[in-house]
Amino acid sequence: MSEVNWKPVKSSSTPLYLQIVNYIRNKIMSGEWTIGTKLPSQRQLAACFEVNRSTVITALQELIAEGLLEAKTGSSTFVANNTWNVLATSSPNWPEYVQAGIHQPNRSLIQQINKAEAEPATLRLGTGELGSELIPTDEMKQMLISKQHQSLSLGYEEPKGNAQLRETLSRYLRKKGIQASPSSILIVSGGLQALQLIAWGLLRKGSVILHEAPSYLNSLSMFESVGIRGVGIPLDRHGLQMESLVRLKRQHDAALLYTIPSFHNPTGAVMSEERRKQLTEIAHRETLPLIEDDVYGDLWFEDAPPPPLKADDRGGNVLYLGSVSKALSPGLRIGWLVGPEQVIDRLADIKMQTDYGSSSLSQAVVNQWIQSGKYDDHLSQLRVSLLKRRNLTLDILRHCLSDCCTWNIPAGGFYIWLRLQKRFSARKLFQLALQKGILLNPGSVYDKMDDSHIRLSYAYPSESELVQGLQRLAQLIKEDFCQ
User: Does residue 199 fall inside a structural domain?
Assistant: First the structure.
């Protein structure tokens, strides 16, 4: 069930247990908690309500006596009825429907991270998005009220997306060496939707997709939900290990490879130019389509990364994924997928069936940002800000954790891949830090077997939050693990 955000009023003349009874009764009678819903444990409810466990027990016993709740073996408590006069079988068993849904739920660890991110007091040291200070909110407001948008259309767009935006992106991509006509570009609601469309539209149930190990892809359940399995390929500081790629492709008859060659999530690695050429040659020889996720590609600090794989693609072998979510605003929900027209046509048709097109307002805004040159100007300023935060993070790590941890020095992007030298659990550190109000992304999010890494992000926290959070984290590591 969802988290309980309500608390009884301790100054009220109504007894605490009775307030809890009324709260739970209203949840049941309104249909929010349906028959079969499992309540949190007595200990969890006591913590949520900030009362003694005995108070919770008294309230639950009252509701059991009314017939609204039922206590089953093992002390679990369920909703048994939703009225005093109607049999329980008269309402649909929504918990059964929930469990039967095709789409798999997020792993409990990721659900825990998502919940903690919604808490305003949490110091988020692992969040993979720009913090509010780095999003050009004022410029965005000015653009929305400018005369340039007086004739703005708010109707549905073409199946492939706003024609002007696709024209603008076609010119923009040429700067990266990518030749893509507007007809071979699909506008999507962020990079995640592009991956969903590929899973639904291009892959069979039972297919195997290859990816780096660790990989962002491991944090997603959508491929597993449609019967697609991921196989990891070892990664070093130069990128994918090509010997393993060929062997695993043949062993599993893999359908495609997903890769983040520039400022990889979570390791921050950049695939070398030599490895990119090797990958292109292997993919062509092995008839292995590639998904190139380049959402971090513009966020370099001193030197731009090698050209995208798509820039060297002459056979339509690469599906190229870009987005403004990491560089401009995650809330705009605008990305793009570049590929052969036959593929783009197929995925555009599926997109129309699922959401009838991405936001027309967001598409118009992104088009104006890129077309006017404001996006390039913003990127220049953003790189400076991110570099400053990266250096601040590295300084704190060197000062506080050099005897306990090692880490990469990213040349761009958001992430530092922190390795805990001592033999202790990153999952345990995650839980201890969360108790102290610090949210981390443990390595097991990106590789289920990895219990020695933490993904740190310097993009979301402010500079003061970085200092405060990292110093508290360092103290926690030394106190609990480095003795």
Answer: yes
Evaluate whether residue 133 is within a structural domain. Answer: no
Q: Are residues 28 and 64 in the same domain?
A: yes
pLDDT grade for 1, boundaries at 50, 70 and 90: low
Token reading at 107: 């792993």
Quote the pLDDT of residue 87: 40
Measured distance between the N- and C-terminal CA atoms of the chain, rounded to whole angstroms = 40
Question: What are 295-310's pLDDT values in tens digits?
Answer: 999 999 999 999 999 9
**What is the C-alpha to C-alpha distance for residues 426 and 442, in angstroms, rounded to an integer?**
6
- Give CA–CA dist 377/372, Å, rounded: 10
Whether residue 109 is predicted with pLDDT greater than 50 in this model: the reply is yes
Nearest residue to 268 (alpha-carbon basis) of 305, 231, 311, 222: 305
Q: Is the pLDDT of residue 314 over 90?
A: no
Q: Tell me: do 396 and 272 sit in the same domain.
A: no
State the residue for tokens 């990958």.
Answer: 279
pLDDT of residue 151: 65
Residues 170 and 287 in one domain: yes
Based on the fold, state whether residues 382 and 309 are members of the same structural domain: no
Pair (266, 167) in one structural domain? yes
